[in-house]
Structures are given as structure tokens and as C-alpha cells.
Amino acid sequence: MAAHMRTPVLLCFVLFAGNLLAQTLPPAPKAHVTDINAKPGYFNEPSIAVNPKDPQQLVVAWQVNASAAYSTDGGNTWTIAEGTAPKDYRVSGDVSVAFDNSGRAFLCYIAFDKLGTSQYWAHGATRNGIFVRRSPDGGKTWEPDAFPVIMHNSTPGIPFEDKPYIVADTAGPHAGNLYIGWTQFTLTASDLLFSRSTDGGATWSQPIKLNSTPGLPRDDNGAQEGFHAVAGPDGTLYTVWDSGEGIMMAISHDGGKTFSHDRRILATGPLFFGITGVSRSNGFPQIGMDPRGDKKGGTLYVSWSDYINGDVDVFVASSSDHGRSWSAPVRANNDPIHNGNDQFFQWMAVDPQSGAVNLVFYDRRGNNENTTVTLARSTDGGKTFTNYTWDSETFSAVGDFLGDYLAITSFGNKVFAAWAHQTSEPAKEEREKKTRTVVRVGVADFNP
After folding, report:
1. CB environment 372-396: b (16+ within 10 A), e (fewer)
2. How many CA atoms lie within 13 A of 16 on its CB side?
3. Distance (Å, rounded) from C-alpha 123 to C-alpha 157?
4. Which residues are paired to 325 by β-bridges?
5. Which residues are CB-contacts of 55 (< 8 A; sequence separation ≥ 6)?
6. Which residues in 104-121 are b (16+ Cβ under 10 Å) and which e?
7. What are the φ/ψ torsions at residue 314 (nearest 5 degrees)?
8. Averaged over 415-421, what is the pLDDT?
């Protein structure tokens, strides 16, 4: 199924719901935007990856159910793949994608039959687990068998495994390793679990716990949640997540066998917060590295969003000593501080070739009602950020489930992102939530 093409949005003014809204940001250079889904539905929480062995190959994934599309021309056109969702579970989602050092694509997802009580997922949870599916050809075809990372049958008191994220180690002594971190909810706590594969995703290690203090057992605040990681050129694996009291880090020097004691590296505002019209929202962290530098790699970056300034802003902090100390936060959104306009659902990617720091986020600058998509980019080590309009076709974000995150990746000064876009069609009720969204992919090219 071919994706629906849109003309790149390059106008400085857009007409939405009868209102002319001034867009003060410059357009992303050579912007190209594509709707992946031909018709709107319950499509959100995307993930996107570019193949470093062949940067013309990209994969984007989304829910519900676990779905993927591929591009062989650098994101200009997309085709939806077959055979990604499991047939033996009712629901699959919370997707993430990665390419390993040999160019294989991996799709990670959760699968379950029914959630537990609202936000208290382990209360009455049915069978569920985390699975990985592989593609040998850049996402065109997917192997029929999915490999379990962890799974539970429907017996009383089972935990619920949530929000996994897959990371590939593509260089250094542990190249080829795959890593997944996620939140395990039980009736009494939440923990950040981790597993690794050294055989291309076919088998996964017994999960280990990265957090030393348990989190609360609910998904609406105080949980150990939001795993993300990056592997340096020397094989050091840096992991981060939200503890409810700030951003935590644990580091592995042996390919994910063992980890340092977790510690809080950044004190933040709460990373769960309310956004008008959005059913729930968070500012979970991402970590990236400029691999250029000494044998350990260069600067580390962590991004998140919170409302420490009153309205929700996107922040980036950096470390030049491999995570031991961190800079003061820098706002990635460049609208006036304390203006009451929210920027949320940020995601960050550091270009492995140029070292540029790129972020995508929903942006409500102007009136804090209409939502656009902004690309923020730093080429001076995270000291300053230039903001660009990536998709100026606004939407209200009222009444639809937009998911929990957006997605971005970058390679060779080209930036690729994916987000849920609310259409103007009447909302449909699905899984007790109204939805009329499509997954939209944007490409920006900063090459001369």
C-alpha cells in the first residue's frame, strides 16, 4: 500500500478553521511531508530509523496495531509493509524500530489482550509481553515469527510490560548487540527492566533491573518510565529514564551485562503534565551522542520537556565528560519565556556524521490552541537552537489520543521525523478513545 503524498508546506501563513495564523518561523529546508495512512484511524506513537549502511532506507512504525512502512528513496515515498502485527494477540503497540550494524531492521512492540484498570495496568492484566520482529531487507518484508523478550500467560497477579524501546549497538567492541529497556508494572511498584541480545534478536537475556528504588505502580505519575539509550564508539552504553523526581542514568561498560548504580543526573519538573485537549502528555527523556571525539565519543545530550517555566518547554542538557557532570538546561524552543504557550512530546536525535542536535515537537506558540510541528536544531554543541516550521498545517488536538511521543532520526545532515496528525474528519470511537489521526513523516535536508 503506497503512502499518500502531500505537497511540502512552505507557506508562512496557513488557513485553519477559518483563522489566518501567522507562522513566524522559517520553513525547514527542502521540507517534504508525507501522510503514511490513506485514511485516518487510531494511528499514533511512531518510531523512525535510518539505515546507516544505506541512508536511502528508512523504516517508520506506529500503532495500533504494530505497523510499519518502508522507504527506499530517502523518505520521499513510503509503502506500508505486511505482516508486522501479531495475529495471536488482540492489541499490539508501543512500537520502536532500529537498524543493526549489518543493515537489518528490527521492530519491537508490546502485545496484550486487555489492559488492567485505567493507568493501573497490572490490576487485572491479561496475558502480555514484549516481542521483536526482524526484516532482512530494510522493512519490505518481515520474518513471520516474532521473538519474545518477556511474556506472561493470563494468570492472576501477572505484571504488565510497558513502553519498551529498542537500541542497536552499531560500532565498537559490542557491535551487533541489541538492547531493550522498558517499565514493568506490578500491583505494588514499577521497575525499569533491561534485556540484551547478542544473536541478532533471536534470544534475549534474563531481564535485569536498572533502578535501585521502585517507582509507583501507576502510569500517570511517579513510575520508573521512559527508557532511552545510546551506545558510544567504545561500547559504553548510556541509559536514561524518568524516576518521577528527575532523570536517572545507569551505564554499562560490558555490552549490557552489568550496570553502574543508577543516579539522578538532572533534576527536572514533573515529566507528566496536562496539555489542554490532550488526554495525557509527558516529557520523557532521550539521550544522544556526538560520536566524534576521543575513543569514547564526544558530547552527550539529554532532552526532555516540563513546565518549570509555567508553560511546557523543551530542554536539552549536555555532558562533555561522558555523563559525570551536566550543563544547565537550554530551552530548545525559542519563543518568549513564560508566554503561556506549550511545546510538548519532544524527541531528539544527534546526527552521527555532523554532530548536529535535532528535535521535533508539537508547538502551540501564538495562542496555545492550534498545534503545529517544529524542528529545532543546534550546530554549536547544544548552546543555541534554531527553530523551523516543519508542518504548519495546524490542528486543535482536542478529542483525539495523540499517543505518548513523536519520533526523529538523522544522518548526513538530513533529518527524518514522524508524528500523529489530527485530520478534519469526524472522530471515531476506538478503544474508548476518539481518534481521527494519520501518521505523517517529514524530511528536512540541511545539505547545500
Report:
1. bbbbbbbbebbeebebbbbbbbbbe
2. 19
3. 8
4. none
5. 74, 411, 412, 414
6. bbbbbbbbbeebbeeebb
7. -105, 135
8. 97
> Model confidence at 397, in pLDDT bands (50, 70, 90)?
confident
Is the four-CA dihedral 343, 403, 11, 427 of positive or negative sign?
negative
pLDDT per residue over 286-330, tens digit each?
999 999 999 999 999 999 999 999 999 999 999 999 999 999 999
Domains (ranges, CATH) in the chain?
Answer: 22-445 (2.120.10.10)
Q: What is the mean pLDDT of the chain?
A: 93
CA–CA separation, 250 and 288 (whole Å): 14
Residue type at 83 in one-letter notation = G
CB 271 within 8 A of CB 245: no
Q: Give the whole-number percent of the chain exceeding pLDDT 70.
A: 93
**Cα separation of 164 and 185, whole Å?**
12
| Type of residue found at 142 | W
Do residues 184 and 194 lie in contact, with contact meaning Cβ atoms separated by under 8 Å? no
- 272 contacts 236 by C-beta, under 8 angstroms: no
17 SS3 class: coil
Q: Could you read off the pLDDT of 336-386 as tens digits, one per residue?
A: 999 999 999 999 999 999 999 999 999 999 899 899 999 999 999 999 999
Residue 197 DSSP symbol:
E
Here the cell at position 337 is 519565556
Q: CA–CA separation, 32 vs 430, rounded Å?
A: 30
